[in-house]
Design goal:
Largest sheet: 9 strands, mixed
CATH class of the largest domain: Alpha Beta
CATH superfamily of the largest domain: Spore Coat Polysaccharide Biosynthesis Protein SpsA, Chain A
Structural class: alpha/beta
Radius of gyration: 20 Å
Number of domains: 2
Number of strands: 9
Order of helices and strands: EHEHEHEEHEEHEHHEHHHHH
Number of helices: 12
CATH topology of the largest domain: Spore Coat Polysaccharide Biosynthesis Protein SpsA, Chain A
CATH architecture of the largest domain: Alpha-Beta Complex
């Protein structure tokens, strides 16, 4: 591992020909730091690879996956090849402010294994929003596993901290053997960060907002379904079996389990009502009254819109 490279920027790409170049240029435009840009093509069936190969910059390396394995599997390939002191994850349709990495590294505590900043969103009308998190949503300083878990709920007023795009110390990730779970295709960033924290990572939140999310219609995270919740429950079970959680993290996990189960039966109820399964829906309401109360969410949304 050569520390001559400050940051390895890993971009997992699948059918990203329309926007991958913007992400690459954003990575190459980082000021004050030395970078390598590792684009991992996840078996695209468009011209993604040709677009990447058209970039004549030795800092850009194209890695090809033999089969489509999802963002986690692709990032594992990039992380394994990374030579930088730090590793940054950049989605193929997102960008970073040109001073993001140098600002984060300049403010990094010596003992940090994970660096976390705020982010903004680029809306479809081209407007960049204010930073997503307030100081209470994402407090500055050390980030604990229990805080991460208890702030990753669905159908809640709490802003999920699972959206953050941290920098990870390469040495820590490889020494602890932390990897993305390839089977996870929703919430993969949450489980990776949670695994780092469960392995004892020192995670530090910085007073900066240099990452810019691009909001696109049709994103898997834009519409939650019963199958998504079911998978999250399974992945959470795997997480708790893999790591022995301290009391505060275990308590947070129990609250998250309750939240996910409530969401599961709510979404199931919505499906039952839509498909006119009235008797199963009635049983669902009787057995899960707290889930049925979430039926007010669509009503509130429409009232707000009107």
């Amino acid at each position: 591992m050569s520390n001559a490279i400050d940051v390895s920027i890993v971009i997992a790409a699948w059918n990203a020909e329309d926007f991958i170049l913007t992400a690459i240029n954003s990575a190459l435009s980082q000021k004050g730091v030395s970078v390598e840009v590792l684009v991992v093509d996840d078996a695209s069936n468009d011209s993604t690879c040709a677009v990447v190969e058209s970039v004549k910059d030795p800092r850009v390396k194209l890695l090809r996956s033999d089969k489509n394995g999802g963002p986690g599997a692709a990032r594992n390939i990039g992380f394994a090849a990374a030579q930088g002191k730090w590793i940054a994850v950049l989605d193929s349709d997102d960008v970073m402010h040109e001073n993001r990495l140098t600002n984060m590294l300049s403010a990094a505590p010596v003992t940090a294994d994970v660096l976390i900043d705020n982010f903004c969103e680029l809306n479809s009308d081209g407007v960049i929003t204010k930073p997503f998190y307030s100081s209470s949503d994402l407090p500055l300083g050390d980030l604990s596993l229990s805080f991460l878990i208890k702030t990753n709920l669905v159908f809640s007023n709490i802003k999920s901290t699972g959206y953050v795009k941290p920098l990870f110390k390469n040495e820590f990730v490889k020494e602890k053997g932390v990897q993305y779970w390839p089977e996870v295709r929703i919430g993969e960033d949450y489980y990776f960060l949670a695994s780092c924290l469960a392995n004892g990572a020192n995670a530090h939140v910085l007073d900066q907002a240099g990452y810019i999310y691009t909001i696109r219609d049709g994103s898997i995270s834009s519409k939650m379904e019963v199958t998504h919740i079911s998978k999250l429950l399974c992945f959470d079970k795997k997480f708790t079996q893999q790591y022995q959680l301290i009391e505060s993290a275990l308590s947070a996990q129990q609250a998250r389990d309750k939240n996910l189960n409530r969401a599961y039966y709510y979404l199931l109820l919505v499906e039952q009502i839509k498909t006119r399964q009235f008797f199963p829906a009635l049983l669902n309401i009787l057995n899960n009254p707290s889930s049925a109360m979430l039926l007010s969410l669509p009503i509130k949304k429409r009232l707000f819109f009107w």
